[in-house]
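Lab notebook, page 48
Experiment: co-folding of the full assembly
Goal: obtain a model of how the components sit together before planning crosslinking
Operator: M.T.
Materials (sequences as entered):
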Amino acid sequence: QKEVEQDPGPLSVPEGAIVSLNCTYSNSAFQYFMWYRQYSRKGPELLMYTYSSGNKEDGRFTAQVDKSSKYISLFIRDSQPSDSATYLCAMSKETSGSRLTFGEGTQLTVNP
Amino acid sequence: DGGITQSPKYLFRKEGQNVTLSCEQNLNHDAMYWYRQDPGQGLRLIYYSQIVNDFQKGDIAEGYSVSREKKESFPLTVTSAQKNPTAFYLCATSTSSGNTIYFGEGSWLTVV
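Observation: model returned without errors.
Model output:
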């Protein structure tokens, strides 16, 4: 069983929709949680970084962590065609030195 | 222009040949990483280095080698011992105290 599970999709939504992307994990040692966005044939770029349980908002993006359920989410409000990409969740057990474990990635398409 | 530079972007290799992928950074980050990305498998860690002249194996180091002679550079050699080398290779960096990593644009390696 993988340490981090992420539905690969693909997920297709109309422009303006609210998108929910999710990951579950099995190891309670994970303390730091990240979401990366990866456009086709490009390197991933960091979108959100969270440590504690709860919500963190940045513009149209909200990251949610529920450590008791071992579940993290990324919400995208008012989705745009430019949000079409693969979204990767990642998590780390360590306070430094960043040895990350990644989910498989969810491919999202926002249709105009 | 600051950041992480990977070269070449696209590379074709004949079976049985070694190939070296370059990764250079001017972010003054201490730690550098090599990941491999395959469809349906997410990102997997090959090697990482937290300081010059030192590096550690990741989860899939077999058939790969690295060196870290300078802070700015972390080249990856894909040897002929790597049985399935066709993949997208990503170099990344982080600060020594940071939990997040930043990626280059990637190198596509195809074995023909």
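Interpretation: Chain B touches chain A through 28 residues (CB under 8 Å).
Next step: discuss with group before ordering constructs.
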